[in-house]
Amino acid sequence: MIIENGYYVDENNNKWDMEIFTEKEAGECSETLVNCKNCYNCKNCKNCDDCYTCYNSNNCNYCNYCKNCKNCNNCYGCYFCYDSYDCYFCYFCYDCYFRYHFCENKKRGKR
């Protein structure tokens, strides 16, 4: 773990904000990421790229503040959106399992 521009950075360029995490906490979070690259403040994720403050997500790219998501891309604030093939550019999607059209509407900003 190195320090760079106010972040603790691991060997895969995953980063944790020094104002939020101690070095020990950042190291612990780093150990929970499996094959993730360029992620910020994330924990318990697998195969994610360029995500920000996500938790327990898999195979996601460019997502922000997502939790328990899988196969999502460019989503924001999603929660529990498993295998939703329409889960691209979604915003504030919640509990989307088996509700693909709901996610589709959410990504257009509808409620």
Strand order of the largest sheet: 1-2-3
Radius of gyration: 14 Å
**Main structural class:** alpha+beta
Helix residue percentage: 10-25%
Report the principal-axis shape: elongated
What's the tally of helices? 2
Can you write the helix and strand succession as a string? EEEHH
| Overall pLDDT metric | 82
Strand content: 5-15%
Largest sheet: 3 strands, antiparallel
Could you tell me how far the N terminus lies from the C terminus, measured between alpha carbons in angstroms? 42 Å
Record field, number of beta strands:
3
Quaternary organization: single chain
Q: Could you list the spans in which at least 5 consecutive residues all have pLDDT below 50?
A: 98-102, 104-111
Explained architecture:
This protein is an alpha+beta fold and 111 residues long. 16% of the residues lie in helices and 8% in strands. It has two helices and three strands. The chain has helices at residues 23-32, 100-107; strands spanning 2-4, 7-9, 15-17. A three-stranded antiparallel beta sheet has the order 1-2-3.
Indicate the topology.
Elements: E1 2-4, E2 7-9, E3 15-17, H1 23-32, H2 100-107
Antiparallel strand pairs: 1-2, 2-3
